[in-house]
Amino acid sequence: MKKLMQNLKQIDGKGYKAYKSVQGHYTFDDFDLYIDYVQGDPFATPSKIRVVIPVQKRQVKSEWLESQARKVAAENVLARKVGVAVAKGGQFIKGSGKSGEILFDKPGQEVLERSAVQIDSASITVCISVGLPANGRKINGREAEKLFSHAIPTIIKNSIFAIADDEINQVIELADQQEAIRSEMRQNNWISFIANGSVLPRESGISNRPLKDAIPFKSPAADEVEIQLPHQSEPIKGMAIKKGISLIVGGGYHGKSTILQAIERGVYSHTKGDGREYVLTDSDAVKIRAEDGRQVTGVNISPFINNLPHKQDTHFFSTENASGSTSQAANVMEALEAGAATLLIDEDTSATNFMIRDHRMQQLVKKDKEPITPFIDKIRQMRDQLDVSTILVMGGSGDYFAVADSIIMMEAYVPYNVTNDAKEIMEKYPLYRDTLLDEAFGEIAERNFQQNSLQTNKGSRSKTQAKGLTKIIMGRTDISFDDTEQLVDSSQTRMIAEIIQYLDRTNGLGAKSLNKLLDDLEEQMDKSGLASFTTFKNQHPGDIARPRRYEIAAVLNRIRTAKVTQQ
Asked: Average pLDDT for residues 93-108, to the nearest whole number?
């Protein structure tokens, strides 16, 4: 520490690039400081530092590391504490540009594996970005001394050293309970569980916090199950959605989309106080929607769309500007290609002609004149031939009653099981539309992305950079994925950008299918960690969080320079 302070005094007033001399490792009383990367000027991306607290200074209990879920939960609660401490620290370092700026990747409501805080049996590592102080383009050494001798130690003191073991133990117990629910779901072939008392509505369209005074969820009696959880004597009760075809119906503004949104976010665990701590969903569930204008490259959409005018091939379908129906067909087929086991669909964000074609329309537009086989005519084949379930919000077509295994009606945010009522309606008003339930679903083609799909060069530099939640700039190409709804954190987007850069750097696409590529990426994340994809492997890994394979695939599928072959 003394050496660092001495160095900062010596370079005070010099040109900003002299800050490069402080890069390195310094020992403080309670932690080690690593300055891994120094920014080139006061207005550039802030410098990257790591604070490493050895277990001799802050204990890491062995039980916190007994499972991956426990480890991620412990890291998450520590990261929350650091985020609060950074926010409270305020901006008191003076200077130009980003002088004194302290940035930290604070978690949201979802509990994600991320690089911001990492724990192991030897230490706790906190990754922070800081703006090194300057006056104009001259080093402000005195303010830099304050940054390193006061601001950073205060943040660590008020977070890592302030949190009680009991608080960490509580999140560990919640993680155990969430894992117990997931285990029970697998054993019983449930694809989603929503606990009684859960708060599903969010504060607003731009806030992920629970809505105050919302109606707590209460399962219909027919769907209620109970699960014995660790760390508590009373079992938890709630609604189980079984594998198969489930409809969520009801009038407008009664909570249909709200429950589906909770289900789609249930692929992630949630933090205590979120209201959805015990809302859990099959981790291989993928939200599907129409996406007008998206890029589609070499996808076999023939199970849904065939015999297009001008004899356009739908077994290897490509377009730079997909329609609602072709984009939704491509989204389904891409999800299945990537390994999805459950599809989540809301009619509000679907193409009507993709979802249904009623009896009257079938009489007017004959089968040989209609290229689209609607989703209703393939949903049972997916269940029976592919073992793929569907949860579908449907308020406008009762034809889906004929294919559903279970039907839940939302009324003023309260769910009711109306499966038997719907069957009686079907008996009273039989379905006259022509169905194609005896057909095979069709082929799910596996594709190989060619290495030259990744064009990361911009001039002499190779660069891939995330811009917010739903955009990545790859070289000179923008990749936009605004409608990828299960991507929940910008740090996941940064991780996908790192993966693209890594695949380009290592020629990683190779001659492997997309599914095999996703398997390999997940295996590397499991075995070597998120940082193994970055250029700072043994340093500050960047503010990254783990994305699912389906969101990685979604981004690759929207690369406008993509080139693919089918196996």
From this structure: 91
Radius of gyration of the chain (CA): 26
In the numeric block, the tokens 């133990």 are attached to 169
Q: Residue 121: what are its φ and ψ, rounded to 5°? A: -70, -15
**CA distances in angstroms from 315 to 177, 290, 318, 560, listed in the order given:** 45, 19, 10, 19
- Count of CB atoms within 10 A of residue 209's CB? 14
3-state secondary structure of 550: helix
- The letter for the amino acid at 26 is Y
pLDDT above 90: residue 431 = no
The pLDDT > 90 percentage for the chain reads 86
**Helices 549-557/324-338 angle, 10° precision:** 140
**Burial (Cβ within 10 Å: 0-12, 13-18, ≥19) of residue 229:** buried
| Contact (Cβ atoms closer than 8 angstroms) between residue 180 and residue 32 | no
Compute the Cα dihedral for 211, 214, 219, 220 and give only its sign.
negative
- Return d(Cα 137, Cα 458) in angstroms, integer: 27
Give 35's pLDDT tier (boundaries 50, 70, 90).
very high
> Pick from 405, 407, 441: which is nearest to 244 by CA?
405
Listed range (14-28, 144-158, 349-363) with the worst mean pLDDT: 349-363
- Return the HEC string of 506-539: CCCCCCCCHHHHHHHHHHHHHHHCHHHHCCCCCC
**What's the token pair of residue 542?**
């960047």
Which one is predicted more confidently, 408 or 309? 408
Q: Which of 528, 531, 527, 529 has its CA nearest to residue 542? A: 531
